[in-house]
Write a structure and sequence with these properties.
The chain is an alpha/beta fold. It has a single domain (2-184), classed as Rossmann fold (3-Layer(aba) Sandwich). It has helices at 61-73, 85-89, 159-163, 167-184, and strands spanning 2-7, 19-23, 37-39, 75-80, 103-108, 119-125. It has a 6-stranded mixed beta sheet with strand order 2-1-3-4-6-5, with helices on both faces.
């Protein structure tokens, strides 16, 4: 089993078999299992536009909860590049390791089929960098942007699309968590 924490109500993960998916209604703070974790905690309180965000009470602490679960069980946390979470939680910069064996990997979600580049940081615990599933890499120009800028005429994606995980990226994250399970001697999902 793999736990997916802080999924959208309409998450692609809900269509996958043998995943323990926690959306807002199910409340990921109730998760106390030992399975590897794929965590997508809300980022609006941590992102570049955090000064304009209106997070719900306690929302900021969800990312800290996710980090604790990932360090305990192994897994991966996904957040936008530029998230202040890395600084606040003492997460390692790309190319560095922390005392939990965790490391940070920077990716662009358009490598996994997202219409926007969507620069993303992943905090990973429970495996070595060379054990990662193959990462697709694309030099293709993203057709859309996450937010419009005067200097960029490409169309913006919707808020919902910014929050959704593309299916190929979700499958890659599940493969990553399955690799951690295999290291633990647990049958793959």
């Amino acid at each position: 089993m793999i736990a997916v924490l802080f999924a959208r109500k309409d998450s692609i993960y809900k269509s996958f078999h043998q995943l323990d998916v926690y959306d807002k209604q199910r409340n990921a703070r109730n998760y106390d299992g030992q399975a590897p974790v794929i965590a997508h905690p809300p980022c609006r309180a941590w992102g570049r536009l955090r000064y304009f965000a209106k997070p719900e009470k306690g929302e900021r602490s969800l990312a800290i909860f996710a980090i604790r679960k990932i360090r305990e069980n192994g897994g991966v946390l996904e957040h936008p590049k530029g998230s202040q979470l890395w600084k606040k939680a003492g997460l390692p910069a790309p190319g560095k390791r922390d005392k939990y064996g965790g490391f940070t990997l920077g990716i662009n979600q358009n490598w996994f089929g997202h219409r926007a580049e969507k620069a993303t940081l992943l905090y990973i615990c429970g495996l070595e960098p060379q054990e990662l599933p193959p990462i697709p890499f694309s030099l293709e120009y993203a057709t859309h942007v996450c937010e419009s800028r005067k200097a960029d005429s490409r169309p913006s994606i919707t808020k919902a699309e910014r929050e959704r995980t593309p299916e190929p990226f979700a499958k890659w994250l599940v493969d990553l968590a399955n690799t951690i399970n295999l290291k633990k001697g647990v049958k793959s999902c």
